[in-house]
Design brief:
The complex is a heterodimer of chains A (about 40) and B (about 500). With about 40 residues, chain A is largely without helices or strands. Chain A contains one helix and two strands. Chain B has about 500 residues and is of the alpha/beta class. Chain B is built from 16 helices and eleven strands. Chain B has an eleven-stranded mixed β-sheet, with helices on both faces. In chain B, helix 3 runs antiparallel to helix 4, helix 10 packs across helix 12 and helix 10 packs across helix 13. The longest helix of chain B has 24 residues. The chains are: A little secondary structure (about 40), B alpha/beta (about 500).
Chain lengths: ~40, ~500
Amino acid sequence: MHNIMRDDEPRPSFDKEDILANAPQREGDHFRVRAVLE
Amino acid sequence: MTAQTLHWLAVHEAADLLARREVSSVELTRAALERIAALDDRIHAFLTLTEEAALAQARAADQRIAAGEAGPLTGIPAAIKDVICTRGVRTTCGSRILESFVPPYDAFVIQRLTEAGFVMLGKTNMDEFAMGSSGENSAFGATANPWALDRVPGGSSSGSAAAVAAGMAPYALGSDTGGSIRQPGSLTGVVGLKPTYGRVSRFGLVAFGSSLDQIGPFARSVRDAALIFQTIAGHDRRDATSASLDIPTVTDALTQDLRGLRIGVPREYFVEGMDEDVRRAVDAAIGEMERLGAEVDREVSLPSTDHALAVYYIIAPSEASANLARYDGVKYGYSYTEGQSMWENMEKTRQFGFGDEVKRRIMLGTYALSAGYYDAYYLKAQKVRTLIRREFDAAFQDHDVLVTPVSPTPAFKIGEKVDDPLQMYLSDVCTIPVNIAGLPGISIPCGFSQAPDGSKLPIGVQVLAKPFDEPTLFRVAHAYEQATDWHKQHPEP
């Protein structure tokens, strides 16, 4: 048995605007949903 | 070059003409778009057309060709199943729930094709979330078989198969979880390849059954399928199951004879109730392979084959139920917002967003995975899966390939099986074991059946090889294809 985990290197992730572009409802940088808690 | 001859060019023929400047990519692309405009009202292979982007890609490809930087796929138009993410082009998976979804990134296979000088004509129709064997589960309407417009083209990659069969695209990509490339390939008379599990990265493929899904090509020749395979295969660290193996130069394997090749014919694949024309055509294909020099062993037995369908309908829905949990109406896609609570909105989003077959499989999957049933169903299915794989491994000790039918029947009528899911599931009885075992499989045209109204209905033969032995698969498929002319026949819709 040997470990095959790769090195933990940071890499760029998706652009925030790209990800939020499909949001049915957004508020600022967040996805908007109905209140979860009463 | 007349438009008529452009429609039926194989990818490698088009590439030769492009290299000799006898045709331009813009001309090929225009011819394909005109063909789509003329036929697709009746066939409904496409859900989204990307005409302007296609012509821009074609102009870029022509520049690349002029600069002497062309590869084998540069400038050749293609159609992409709508389950493969394309940046900026909506990707619906044939579902209302993703009707408005525009992916923020390209799938790995799209990145590879783009590097190769790809021209995308559009995104093709499919059974919702790739769940189906006829194309009829698309939320946007069925696709017609170009050979007989009242019949299905198979599924789930219904639009990709129909587009290639009808001369609307020289090649297409599909995905295959239980036969969704090979079965429609067989029913529409084109070549359909499911590579080995792990060969092609699924990064950007919308997930259905993650231990089964593979992406592969539809084309009108084996050589084309090999060229496309070579372009899209390879390691990608964004898919944890992607194999770190070199891609063999499969086009080197395309020879004309099969001397020394050992073919096994597993008897369990000639199932009770299969169509007589299919049986005859597949038998004749095996005879032709023998004539080309192969040794044929008709006594192979894979006794667990009978359990494959049951195993699949536990494993695939279980994985689907987990994969489809992400559609909650919050991050993208259809969203019901009129409810009183977040939970009500999520519930209604899924109630209205998913079609019946998708809901059926989510229910089957959540049931099979639930506490108290997990051991009896999912775990048991995984154990039988191992048995199925071992039987294949044993058969490949003494045989280089196995040859079987693809579908027990030719194309059936639209509407014929929609009310009987179990009958529909049987369409994949010969293709499902291959996904269960992770093997590569290819469907190639091997004949026709005749419908009562006189329509010709294509029949395919399936060739299976050891994991990662696609070169042998292509060798057998190509030698057979070159000895026959089934792949040169086209429908006249």
